[in-house]
């Protein structure tokens, strides 16, 4: 029985860290007093300790204790005993590299499929898909594999941006890049806009938030799905 919240971002414009999703997090983590935090993505290169402090400040609002996985002498054992995990955003290449380096990817996947509650934002959302190949991040390190958790049967593109017709920038749009991905790869991709997330309960996946999501499938025109819709392929 899988239980996941897969969010595009931790912070939407005009709100504080996790504020927009706190009501859902309070319900999602109601049976967990402690949440193991995976800070490996290190946005802006901040330290694991500093990133954990940011996460703790966000979860203070719902009375949860956040403990960085980097503080455990045995991160694999920490995951085996965890009731709940949060993986924050940052650089997906760095996150995946560390998950492989510390050999925690298989344990994290196993615990998710056992029903452990998992919340991921941005890079932490990317790794729930089949691969990390639809990330927006710079390849600052070289992970041993692009394969990720496979907790959902498609890829995520967080922070999805629609083309701006008034922009003077004429480079690739996000849609163009995903089309390039599909010239070689077959798995579907969901573009999650800011403030949107996926609620996963076992094999049922529902889009949440106030916005639509854009869906990309190989050899098909992209299309929109409404909030509240079930994601099916």
What can you see in these coordinates?
The structure is a single chain. By secondary structure, this protein is an alpha/beta fold. The chain has one domain: Class I glutamine amidotransferase (GATase) domain (Rossmann fold, 3-Layer(aba) Sandwich). The protein is 26% helix and 20% strand. Strand 8 (197-201) and strand 9 (204-208) form a beta hairpin. The protein is globular and about 45 Å long. The two termini are 19 Å apart. The model has no long low-confidence stretch (mean pLDDT 97).
What is the structure about, briefly put?
The protein is an alpha/beta fold and 233 residues long.
Write the SSE topology:
Elements: E1 3-7, H1 22-28, E2 34-38, H2 48-60, E3 65-68, H3 75-81, E4 84-87, H4 92-101, H5 105-114, E5 117-121, H6 123-126, E6 155-157, H7 174-182, E7 189-191, E8 197-201, E9 204-208, E10 213-216, E11 223-225
Parallel strand pairs: 1-5, 2-3, 2-4, 4-5, 6-7
Antiparallel strand pairs: 1-8, 7-10, 8-9, 10-11
Structural class: alpha/beta
CATH class assignment: Alpha Beta
- Could you tell me the CATH topology label: Rossmann fold
Q: Give the N-to-C terminal Cα separation.
A: 19 Å
Characterize the main sheet: 7 strands, mixed
- Portion of residues in helices? 25-40%
Total count of domains: 1
What labels describe this entry?
single chain; 233 residues; alpha/beta; Rossmann fold; seven-stranded mixed β-sheet; four-stranded mixed β-sheet; 7 helices
């Amino acid at each position: 029985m899988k239980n996941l919240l897969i969010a595009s971002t931790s912070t939407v414009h005009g709100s504080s860290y996790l504020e927009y999703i706190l009501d859902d997090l309070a319900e999602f983590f109601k049976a967990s007093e402690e949440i193991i935090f995976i800070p490996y993505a290190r946005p802006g290169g901040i330290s694991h300790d500093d990133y954990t402090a940011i996460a703790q400040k966000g979860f203070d609002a719902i009375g949860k204790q956040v403990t960085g996985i980097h503080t455990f002498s045995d991160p694999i054992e920490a995951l085996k005993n965890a009731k709940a995990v949060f993986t924050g955003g940052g650089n997906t290449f760095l996150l995946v590299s560390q998950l492989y380096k510390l050999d925690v990817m298989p344990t994290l996947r196993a615990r998710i499929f056992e029903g452990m509650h998992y919340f991921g934002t941005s890079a932490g959302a990317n790794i729930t898909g089949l691969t990390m190949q639809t990330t927006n991040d710079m390849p600052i390190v070289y992970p041993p594999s692009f394969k990720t958790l496979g907790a959902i049967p498609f890829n995520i593109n967080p922070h999805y941006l629609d083309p701006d017709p008034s922009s003077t920038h004429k480079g690739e749009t996000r849609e163009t890049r995903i089309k390039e991905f599909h010239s070689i790869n077959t798995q579907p991709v969901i573009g999650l806009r800011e403030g949107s997330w996926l609620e996963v309960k076992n094999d049922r996946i529902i889009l949440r938030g106030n916005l639509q999501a854009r869906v990309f499938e190989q050899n098909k025109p992209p299309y929109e799905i409404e909030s509240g819709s079930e994601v099916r392929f």
